[in-house]
Every structure is written in C-alpha cells, then in structure tokens.
Amino acid sequence: MSEKKIIIEVAVFSVESALAALKAGADRIEFCENPSEGGTTPSYGSLKTLIGLTNKPVFPIIRPRGGDFLYSDAEYACIKADLLLVKELGYPAAVIGLLNADGTIDTKRTTELVQLAAPMQITFHRAFDRCNDALKGMEDIITTGCKRILTSGQVPNVENAIPFIKLLVEKAAGRIIILPGSGVRANNCKKIIDETGATEIHSSARKAIPSLMQYNAPGMNENMVFMGVDENEIKAMIAALN
Q: Is position 205 within any domain?
C-alpha cells in the first residue's frame, strides 16, 4: 500500500450520524437522507445545520428521488436548485449522477451541473454502475469535469469487482479519482486498497440505532429504529488502513 494517506469517506443519513462519523475519524462525509431509497438530497434544515457544525469536508448528494437516474425536466430543475443551494451554503463539493435512457452518461446535463457548481467539486455517484459501458462511461464523465467516480465496479459488492476497479484506476491514470464503495468494511478495506491502487474508499458503516423513547404506543406495529453509523467500525477501518 502507498504511504500516501487513504481518504475514508463515510455515507451518512442524518446530521447526528455525520457528526458521529467525523468524531470517529472519517476524513469526509457523503451527506444523504432516506437510506431505504439509496440516499436522496438532504433537507434545507439538515444542510444548513450541518455546515454550521463542522469545517470538515461534507459532500451532499443531490438526488431528488430514489429509483433510476433518468430525470424529467422538472426533476432536473430541482437538481439545479439544490446544487445552487449547497453552493450558497458553502459546501466544498456535491455528489450527482445522471444517465440517458439508453444507459449512457448524460454528459450534457452533467457538464452543465459541473459548470453551475464551480468552484465546488463534483463526484459522479453509483449511477455509473448502471451505465452500459463502464470504460466509455468513465471517459465521458472525465469530459464533464467531475473529480471522482463512486463505484462498486458494476456489481452489488465492490469486493467482487477488485480486478475491474484496478482496471478503472489504471485507465483513469490520475485524470479522475476512482472511489470504491459498497460493501466496504474493516475486514476488507485494506485488501480493496492494496489490490486496486485506489487512494480513497467509501463506506456507510451502517448501524441500526434503537429508539430512546420510553413509551411506544402498543397499537402501532412499527420498528422505531433508525439508520446511524457504527463508530467502532469506522475506527477499525482507520486502524486497518494504517
């Protein structure tokens, strides 16, 4: 493994989880809401609150809904408005991903968003894993001006795509950062880094947090846990990489 410090990005779904992940040693946060949808744009209140509580790098995701990454004109207008909002609030970067119906990268809109966001950095998220040609997709994303690609290597768990991630890193040749993610934990993060040559890694380190309510309505059949982060898992990843 390179002596260069490996950046650990942690995906979180609330302000409290972001603060917990940073306290545990995460280098950077991907800030989302709605884990059951795979992560959508955080609310204005969450965005405004978190930026006032930390000066560490936080990259909000700009994704108006769950599901696919083919957006209507109205949804694209929402993406632009949210991107301008996070820029105005002072975030250093944001995370987006747009595809065309045929599975190619939506380079026209992505380029427009990168230019709109400047000087913020833009990460292209795992919409990349649904594109129809990953190597061409990477080249297309490079032309848009995005700074990194979050990818699992077009399979659900990145550990099963190590040779392909290595190929992406080699083909990228420093022109864009390849950020491996999905299924990254303390027990495999070093292997992924060592065998791919990546310099950054992404994990959600998810943990179900039980409710602190002393009273739960007996007639309501709901599971009141919420998705947080496992601070010990983050610390274990840091230890594994160091």
A: yes
